[in-house]
Write a structure and sequence with these properties.
homodimer, alpha/beta, Aspartate Aminotransferase, domain 1, seven-stranded mixed β-sheet, three-stranded antiparallel β-sheet
Chain lengths: 378, 378
Amino acid sequence: MEEILMTPGPVKILPRILEAMSKPVKYHRGSEFAALYSDIVEMLKEIFQTENDIFVLSGSGTCAMEAAIGNIVRTDDRVLCISNGKFGERFIEIASKYSNAVMPLRFEWGLPVAVNHVAGAIDYFEPDVVTMVHNETSTGVLNPAVDIGALVKNANAIFVLDCITSIGGDDVPVDNIGADIAIVGSQKCIGAPPGLSALSISEEAWKRITANERRKPYYMDLISYKKSFEKLQTPYTPALPLFSALHEALRIVREEGLHHRILRHRTLARAVREAASRMNLQLFPKRAYSNTVTAINLPHGITEDEMKKEMRRRGIIIVGGQDKVKGKIFRIATMGNVSADDVIYTINALEDVLISRGLLHENERGVGVKTAERIIEL
Amino acid sequence: MEEILMTPGPVKILPRILEAMSKPVKYHRGSEFAALYSDIVEMLKEIFQTENDIFVLSGSGTCAMEAAIGNIVRTDDRVLCISNGKFGERFIEIASKYSNAVMPLRFEWGLPVAVNHVAGAIDYFEPDVVTMVHNETSTGVLNPAVDIGALVKNANAIFVLDCITSIGGDDVPVDNIGADIAIVGSQKCIGAPPGLSALSISEEAWKRITANERRKPYYMDLISYKKSFEKLQTPYTPALPLFSALHEALRIVREEGLHHRILRHRTLARAVREAASRMNLQLFPKRAYSNTVTAINLPHGITEDEMKKEMRRRGIIIVGGQDKVKGKIFRIATMGNVSADDVIYTINALEDVLISRGLLHENERGVGVKTAERIIEL
């Protein structure tokens, strides 16, 4: 039995992508790689909805987060890190390595960040740089990027937005938001294998990067990336097979169409949410639900490990909670090229687990699946 | 016609490795990945000839170089960077981002580093950390790692050794050398695709890393790698398909046997050197020839670009020179799973290019190939 991967990255990889990866461009200095890289960047611009420069790093999303902070932030820069989950905390950790003036602005996990509160903090703190996670994968919450972007731009600060698990699956109009740096990971909504990340860089961000005389990271030095990009190269040897895979994944995104892809993601996430509710489960977020990952409170009577194991016995790989919500929630991702069938099988397995534990009555069998099917067929 | 890749990384990828990569481990938290990672590290220890900890980074060799320096070096640490090529220079650049007391010790490109001179510099400078490149890919020179290692250990300093293009193809007894950190790239002598690097860390190095309170890089924080390794995981999502490919590449290394693999590398490099000499070409290094990459002076009458293009027209991809030897040399790598036939085809093509340019007489046709064949058949 082929297991179904419903984790928030890595995600299911379609055969076309595996096939492309198995015939990688051989060499990274030359016209073949140049054409591939150029194509990738053009397709990324479509899903970032941006005119800004975009580069692809041979490293995970965290690598791109550090590239953003490490290039932009000077020791004395005031960095406001908005956080309502594990990845918001990660920005605080990274920023603290590059600035002595990091102000964490924390919100309850499971709630979206509060725009008014952020407005007040920006007013008071007068930050040079503001960081936020768009889609907080750890809690299944979608933060109000457009509203926060407007506040940051109004304060003439630089806005670094982690869109690692939203771009390619949800609507992320980077230029409209005013995100000076936006970041995506290959192995999330784009549906490629893990190992690459990409980031967009605005004119404003370039000004700060260029003016930043302090010691920037070396492997992630964005000025080197910019110089190499003039020849459609990367400063260091890129992970060639992953570039071929990313290229094919982006072609699939383009074939589906961004609009349809976003609708599909929203529908599948809603199917999971409503099916879960119908099965008497409670969603972890109180509102502002992510369109790519659903966090559900663990019901009494089953531990996180048991839930993961029981689901896996039924062929479905899901994840639990991280850090402060470890043991309290489980999460079902509907990212990338996940199909309606994948979701139905997942809900079916979840129903079965709940019934086997006495958490759902036997004569309720099918209610989750029917709910999901109804939403998917709408 | 399938082109033959004779570049110093990336290298030819055998079908078995592409096949393994196209069926990657799906998820990075779980027993399947744990077994893969554990196996990879065991096999790496064999070719590093070390008992030290080894970690695999999802990033190129440069990423591992920065990981080494960024974790070890404190702002006031005295860092002696021995350099006789482009990659020696890279250590100077990276070290200068982390220390205010970097002492470059430069030797002529094309010559090995001089042990006595290094001894004097260590005496005078009393470094905390010494960096060196074992196999200087930019010039085709092999540096005396054992001798330098003894000097560094005698001075109680930390020895960071870039073995990116030697481990897996040449004899690199990391523990005998006394390399506290040794680094390899996936896409060189190991014969895997680009995108991963690995480094070994000695007890002495760990002491310094642990005592280093300054701001270390985040993505490359080796303490995070160590903690995650206890669960056979990586701190951030690894480039899963590349791990599967690396695993298969290392299995091939083990099947060939390190001893045989080293002999094969030495033989193929010697075949290139002697064939080149027989065709009236001059080697760029004066001695201490690399066993994995051969640098040859461009003869008068052909430019670097012409040489590369003429070779490529004949199905062989080679590279020119970098930085200060750009336009002066061309390089033929014999790394990884390059075969005797690959070398013969390469020499044959080179002969043809030289004859077509009047740089070798028509009635000398075959001398290079015969020389190479004789050495390979020995």
